[in-house]
Amino acid sequence: MDNTLIDRIVGVFSRAAMPIVSCALAMAIAFIPGTALAGADDEGDLDAPNAAAGGTSAQSAQEDTAIDDAVNIAADGKSASVEGSPFALEDFSRSQVGSNSDVNGVYAGYRYFVSDESGSLAVVAADELTVVHVPPETAQAVGFDAESSESRGFLKQLLVALDAQNSKGGATLSAEGEWAFTGEPEFERDGVVYKFDQELKPGEFYVCVVGADGSDVTQASNPSYVRLTHADFATLASADQVSVIGAPEGFEALASFLKGIDYSPLWVTLKTTLTAIVFIFVLGLLAAYFSLRIPARAQDIADSIFTIPMVLPPTVCGFLLLLAFGKNTAVGQWFIDIGFPLIFSWQATVLAAVVVAFPLMYRSARGAFENLDPNMLDAARTLGWSNAKIFFKLMLPLSWSSIAAGTVLSFARALGEFGATLFLAGNYLGITRTIPIAIYFEWMNGNTDVAIFWTVVIMAFSFVVILFINLWSRRTTSYRRGMEA
């Protein structure tokens, strides 16, 4: 995790309740007509230079964070101001990717959608160059001077801070490297043309990057190839017209963070796991009992069938279940015909959890039954006990410690199931998104603080459940010893 993400996490958690966070983390381990160029050596009002856009060095990350700290950023990450600057930014947005298709049969270049109105500040970030465009009338209105090192420095601070706040793990802007500030609608560098405020469709304005000869500069074979990382857009306004409401602090920050979380993965996980453990418990006991009452050769085959999900990768289990219950199979089509499509439904999460966790219950129960004294069972039969009575009155109580351990292991396995569930049930918020799936996709989307929250939740929940079952198991063990005595 880089320092930018760490700063985001600390901004939410550590300022709120340091003891709580410490424990949780331990558990989880502007512009005028024309063009002006600015390099790292003429920004005397900035901190030491940072790495180029997308860079990841520790030094540059620390310096970007220093710039970040000097900027007042709104809690929603959409506006920012910096002390001493006559202008500020608001309505900030970021496009991680653009489009490279033709528009009305004409190739306009690689384009980013900006807004339904013209006049926005736009930033196009590439590996070697960051191009910033501000309409000249906007630059004049807010007091931005592209020839002024101070003006460029203020704007770079604002852009770097807001870009980092909205990066979600993607490449970020840096104060180092070459920045080009322009108020012209077109800016060319090394055979690459950056076009701004392009109304390619009625009421739709874009930023386009295209070769001077009209070619696609995102193709590696192009002599003018440029690797674009992302684009930013914002409104440049006078500082006294932008209201920057910072993030809450203390316990208000924690309350705000908790209030903003979607808790549906917790309810889906609880509902799935609790339902699955009932099936796992019953099927595991029945399978263990059945496998001991069939011929020895058949036992080996049955045992292999019941155990194989434990050694297969979860994604393989999910793929096999998808092949078995998909809509192109007879079974899957039958479920669809009766109005109960199984795939990509909540029931599919239960099925996946049962399949991958069942072997743990089965192996624990079978091992416990095999260790029972057969003479004691035969004696019970001579007293006229039925097989059902022997099972419930003798076998279950005497094997309960191992059965409880198998239940705990199965519950934990079902609670943490990811691969088979994602393959069979997908990722549908409020329906099939369990906590493990939420952790993965929150992290992939750059919401590391939310991913850490769910990690702490699932660890704490697992700890409480296991502790409860262990205490219960100890009590039943004492009962068993009393019976044996």
TrEMBL record:
Keywords linked to the UniProt accession: Cell membrane, Membrane, Molybdenum, Transmembrane, Transmembrane helix, Transport
Origin superkingdom: Bacteria
Family membership: Belongs to the binding-protein-dependent transport system permease family. CysTW subfamily.
Pfam families reported in the protein's UniProt record: BPD_transp_1
Source organism phylogeny: Bacteria, Bacillati, Actinomycetota, Coriobacteriia, Eggerthellales
Transmembrane segments: 12-32, 274-292, 304-326, 338-362, 390-412, 451-473
PANTHER family attached to this UniProt entry: MOLYBDENUM TRANSPORT SYSTEM PERMEASE PROTEIN MODB (PTHR30183:SF3)
Domain ABC transmembrane type-1, first and last residues per copy: 266-469
Protein name per Swiss-Prot or TrEMBL: Molybdate ABC transporter permease subunit
Subcellular location: Cell membrane
Cellular component annotations (GO), alphabetically ordered: plasma membrane
Record carries keyword Membrane: yes
Membrane topology: Multi-pass membrane protein
UniProt organism field: Eggerthella lenta (Eubacterium lentum)
InterPro entries reported in the protein's UniProt record: MetI-like (IPR000515), MetI-like_sf (IPR035906), ModB_ABC (IPR011867)
